[in-house]
Amino acid sequence: MKKQKSIKKIKGICRGDYQSPAGITLMVLVVTIIVLLILSGVAINLAIKDGSILGEAKEAVNNWKNITDKEEEELLKLANKMKELKNATNSGDSENNGGEDNKTENTISVSEAKSTINSSNIQSYIGKEVEYNSTKGGTWRVFYYDEEGYFGKAKTVYLKRDYDSINVAGLSKYKIYNSSDNGAIMKKMNPKWASSSYSTIDLENEYCVSWLCDPEIWKEYKTNNSSYAIGSPSVEMYMKAFNQWKDNNTNSTTLINKIDGANGYSVGVDGKYTNSGDYTGRNTIESGPNNIFMTSDKSWWLASPSKTLVDRILAVSGGSAGIYSIYDTNTNGVCPIVPLDQ
Question: For residue range 204-223, what is the model confidence (pLDDT) as tens digits?
């Protein structure tokens, strides 16, 4: 009997209808393995082929990088724009506060100054730095536009150098000085004096002024863009330049001057000659853009004699903010000027 049962069991296994104690046939196990292999192939195919999960992930990373780069570029543009706006604001503040901070100022070329500046736009150019490269160097700025040719050739731009402490020992050692041009430029700079009956260079202050106006002394300040250089502007040019900036009118009465006797000029303010014409008074001069008309706590000579005494000339006083009559022994400085030839 046992022998017959063993034979049936062997036959069942051969037919595949024998079940293990866990209930899994060999056939099911084989099928399961095959299905797993198929699924693995599908997963691998999805992962590595074009348009696959890995490909899409890579594309997503690239897109994110592009977006990030674009955002950084836009932020950089925005930062640069904000910096430009800040600089423009600082430049405006610099003009409003008398030019104490001129770091953001735009410098113009000599050719632009000669070709662009005219009587209608000069106010916006006064005090602006110009790339004028003389042997003596220094910072040069637009000072005056001579539409009528009052000091020489008409439609000429004049530049002024920032304060220079040269010759601080005083002018008195030049109280007898014969200029190399026989006073020709001195007469151009002082046309009221030149047309008066006192135009002979024979007084101490006139000799000193002739030294300030001698182009041979200041030739290191000129270039091939200028026909000459002198030590400082005259009181007539200074006042016309100031009135041009302040009132857009060179003949304004904000600052005035006249020949008042053999010794030279009287000066006044607001159409009046107070203080005996010796000085304009305290705080009557504004510094202007970039201190073009007055340097704080510095005083510089003007190339004009004062009517006060035979040994006095006129000067801009930074400490008092006015035009004063001073002795030629005073230790002032200079602010050379040049015309830009057309």
Answer: 999 999 999 999 999 999 99
